[in-house]
Structure formats: structure tokens, C-alpha cells
Description:
By secondary structure, this protein is an alpha/beta fold. The chain is built from 8 helices and 11 strands. The model has no long low-confidence stretch (mean pLDDT 93). It is elongated and about 85 Å long. Helix 3 packs across helix 6 (194-212) and helix 7 (229-237) crosses helix 8 (243-249). It has 2 domains: 9-212, 3-Layer(aba) Sandwich (Lysozyme-like), CATH 3.40.80.10; 218-266, Roll (Membrane-bound Lytic Murein Transglycosylase D, Chain A), CATH 3.10.350. The site of zinc ion has 4 residues, from loops.
Amino acid sequence: MATILQPDKKITLAIGGMTLEVNQKIIPDGLRAAKDVASYVLKGQPMKPRASIGAAGKPLGITVHNTEDIKVAAGTNAAEQYTRATYNGNMRGVVVHYYVWKNEIWQNLRLDERGWHAADGKTRRAGRRPGQKIGGNLDTVAIEAIGPSKDTEDTTAQMCAWLCREFNLDPALDIWQHYDFSRKNCPAYIRPHWGRFIEAVQGHLTANVQADEQPVETIYTIQSDSDTLWSLAQRFLGNGSRWMEISTLNGNIDPKKLHIGMDLKIPASEGSE
Ligand SMILES: [Zn+2]
């Protein structure tokens, strides 16, 4: 019976108030094929491109794929098994950054390196940004979403949101279908409702911004008679005319009732972090 892989490392990614657990099992730079794996990975050759992705190691997009669900032994899952198949040279030269199955995520490539997944070789096509040229293999992070599963799709959308935030990508402009690069019907399960998928990614990103912007109040103790709501608004919120916000936060306190030693809640100043 095949031995189940152990991840090198487990990492946690946070997006939109949710967390994603990633099993990292990065194909070593020195790993060589034990047999002929593909026309471009013959016996003894490297098992991955070993080349820098996108612009000097920064991904310029994401390519989403779907692949078939598979039956696996107890105690493991399809994302682990696809990773194992990659290591064992049983994926015909396909190497992706992530396999996702339900909430199981396995990472096989670093995010600063290329994979082989888009069937577009080393070519680039016109992108959606002005003047942009983009290659699936050359420039994008590959996610293989396993099976026609709602859970898999949700996790994939969260991963896309995390990557968009991490690399400053726009879901509408920078997430691609495998189809865009090679006309393969992939991701076959997501393509029929692609617009909804992109909206889900945008939703996770928006939720993230809101989670990050939860105001954090501070407490200020009045020091002198010159501390007025106006002066505190000027000092902490950058504008004296915002004194009402301090008043509101303190139960519509009467400006005349301030006194030395009194604690006032001060709203978080936007954009202060
Ligand atoms: Zn594909």
C-alpha cells in the first residue's frame, strides 16, 4: 500500500475573517524524474520548471483548473493523493501550486516559481489590462480544484481572494480559466457559472477589508482645560469638525461637562494603520 505523504510544513492563511490550512509539500529543486514523465520531463530531468514566475518572481495572475475527483484510501484525501502522484511522476508533467479538495489544500510549488499546467508552453497572450501580455505557465499561480464540489469551489474562491490580496491582483482582471490559455474546457465544473465564482472571490476580499477595518477605540484621559472635543477631534481624527463622532461614542456627552481626569473613548482614525 502506498505511503501517504507528510507535509513539510502546515501554514495558516487568513482572509476575510476565515482561515485556510495549507499543507506545504514543495517539490525540491533537485528532484529528478525516475522515469519518463512527459516529453519535457524525461528520466533524469527536473520535475518542475525551476524558473521564476511572472515579474521577477511575483505572480501576475491566477489560473483555475478543475480535475476529476478520485477514490482514496481511508485517512487521506484527493489533494494529498494528487500531490503524491506528482512526486511519483504519475501526472504526465503537470505541476501546480495548489491542489484543493473540499477544505484540504496541498501546495506543491513556491509562489515565486512557475508550474506546468496551462498547456501554453512559454507563450504569452493579450491580458485584460492595457498592453498586458500574460502566459498561463509563465505568469500565473495554478490552483487545481478537485471534483464538482461546492466545498472545493468555496475553498478555491477563498484561496483566490488570499492570493489577490497578497499579490495585489484584481479578481475581475487577473483570474483566468485554463480555457483562456489553451481552449481546454477547464475548469469544467466552474466555467458554467464563472461570473458567480469571481463574485465569490470579490466577496471574500470585501469581507477581508471590512474585517481589517473594524474600528479600534482608544481611551484618552483628559489632561487639561484646553482638551475640548474639538481639539481632541483635531488631534486624533485629523479634523476638529469631527468632534461629534467623539461625542456620539461617549453617549452624546455635553462638551461643557468635560473635566480633567475623565476618560473619553476616541474612535479609530481611518487610514491610521
Ligand atoms: Zn486545467
